[in-house]
Amino acid sequence: MSYKILAINPGSTSTKIALYEDEEEVFIETLDHPVQVIEKFENVQEQYEMRKDLVMAFLEEKGYDIGKLSAVVGRGGMLPPVNSGAYVVNEAMLDTLKHRPAMEHASNLGAPIAYAIAKAAGIKAYIYDSVRTDELHHIARISGMPDIERTSTCHVLNTRAMAIKAAKKRGKRYQDMNIVVAHLGGGISLNVHEKGRIVDIISDDEGPFSPERAGRVPCRELVELCYSGKYDKSIMQKKLRGNGGLRAYLGTLDAREVEKMIEDGDEKARLIYEAMAYQVAKGIGELATVVEGNVDLIILTGGIAYSKLVTSWIKRRVKYIAPVEIMPGENEMESLAYGILRVLRGEEEAREYTE
């Protein structure tokens, strides 16, 4: 029996949709939402009808009958911390996302849109590997300041999907392996999967700098800069996220432009670019200690994993820890669909959300 799964991934100015029949991608489409349209809404929840109607209109235009679908999956939004894997979308989840989300975020619309389409089709809606997945060890939550508790904020969807895929490729179960994964994108995050659970992470603000984020910076100097009188809060936040990393050093967040600069003999560009890879390698080594060095595999994924230069620099420093597999790309739509495919096939069980 084959399964047809519609995946929905709302972003800040677009909604991506994709249809999969088993593992095969039937189509993938990005429905853009111009800034002038988004600005008409006071908050994310007010965008629900507009986005849902666009998705439905696109499916109608394609001539696709939603009655043929087996399931619909939406990107998991800003719920309270949840486990990894699948959850059935229910009224409790929808109420939480609408009235008490942990944060205002476009992903909060993934579950409601999926639910509306699934309800019309008479099938179930799911989320998979929510951005709020949190399975950290208690010891990993200690930050050094009682005022601040570490929480799990990383690229869960893609990193966990790649770990599952890599384990299967080796004829092993994900639940039997220890895997360190680095997601290399506009933001860089790393995590360690211990026997099927993400037990510790390095978020994009406590680890390597990236094309647009400053990552981990010296705390004392950061405090001095914050109180120097030169910058207000919003500017400092942009220095950390948006105007940090490669953009701050080299004036671009495009890794391809940086590599062109290096090809043209720019030594500063080479130093900064290699420093980013160097910090990723340090993060991998840091997370290897969580499982006492018993690492079965290291995975490099995300858009920058397409760079042979960056991946070669990282691999050179960490290959002594474990074999390194390069699995480039964001892979979000595939990750959503494949996750629910495993549920439909009985390989995984979907949880029921309770607040």
From TrEMBL:
Subcellular localization = Cytoplasm
Q: Which GO terms describe its molecular function?
A: acetate kinase activity; ATP binding; butyrate kinase activity
Catalysed reaction(s) here are: butanoate + ATP = butanoyl phosphate + ADP
Q: Which residues form a coiled coil?
A: none
One of the GO biological process terms: acetate metabolic process
Q: One GO CC term of this entry? A: cytoplasm
Q: Which UniProt keywords apply?
A: ATP-binding, Cytoplasm, Kinase, Nucleotide-binding, Transferase
The enzyme's main class, written as a single word, is transferase
The enzyme's E.C. designation: 2.7.2.7
Pfam families according to UniProt:
Acetate_kinase
According to its UniProt record, which protein family does this protein belong to? Belongs to the acetokinase family.
- PANTHER family registered for this protein in UniProt: ACETATE KINASE, BUTYRATE KINASE 2-RELATED
State the name under which the record lists this protein. Probable butyrate kinase
In its UniProt entry, the species of origin is given as: [Clostridium] ultunense Esp
